[in-house]
Design brief:
single chain; 178 residues; alpha+beta; 6-stranded antiparallel beta sheet; 7 helices; 8 strands; 42% helix
Length: 178
């Protein structure tokens, strides 16, 4: 998925006031939840080598949460990696050598914990599916929250990301323990 398509798809998930009124949560929580979908463009169309880099460079994403995935406010890089986000405390990167999205240990950046996607475009496809799943879970009290449901989405995400090599990352994000 292209960065601009990702943004439009995320915005399309924004719940209505009526939907939020049905959510049993504090008003602060509801307000913070809705803010995630208010994404603004921060620059012109920087045409970068990967969609994930275009996303982080062109949009203000500090309120967007996809499970425990967050995007940084800017990209940073060294000779090997481009840093663009976090999963919990660990670091999401684009590996310059093979263009794959990977997760680095926050205490030892030489330790690759998991591979996440073939490239930024396939990563955006997969994390959009997660965002859609979690949003529907939050808005629908009758939603299927079973392990089977979570694991089914994890398998779909891994497929979108490029295959079963990435399954462990998506199982972790979705809380699939089967």
């Amino acid at each position: 998925m292209k960065a601009e398509d990702f943004i439009e798809q995320i915005k399309s998930l924004k719940p209505t006031e009526g939907e939020m009124n049905l959510v049993k949560a504090s008003e602060d929580y509801k307000s913070d939840f809705v803010k995630q979908f208010d994404i603004t463009k921060i620059s012109g169309d920087l045409n970068l080598s990967d969609e994930i880099l275009s996303l982080v460079s062109n949009y203000h994403l500090v309120n967007l949460k996809i499970g425990r995935i967050k995007f940084d406010d800017k990209i940073d890089e060294n000779g090997i990696y481009v840093y663009f986000g976090r999963y919990e405390a660990d670091i999401l990167i684009l590996d310059k050598s093979d263009k794959k999205i990977k997760l680095l240990d926050h205490e030892d950046e030489e330790d690759i914990l998991l591979e996440c996607a073939d490239n930024g475009e396939s990563f955006l496809d997969a994390v959009f599916m997660i965002k859609k799943y979690f949003t529907l879970q939050r808005l629908n009290v009758d939603a299927d929250r079973s392990q089977d449901s979570k694991c089914s989405v994890a398998f779909q995400c891994a497929s979108l990301a490029g295959g079963n090599t990435y399954l462990n990352f998506y199982k972790n994000v979705l809380g699939c323990f089967q």
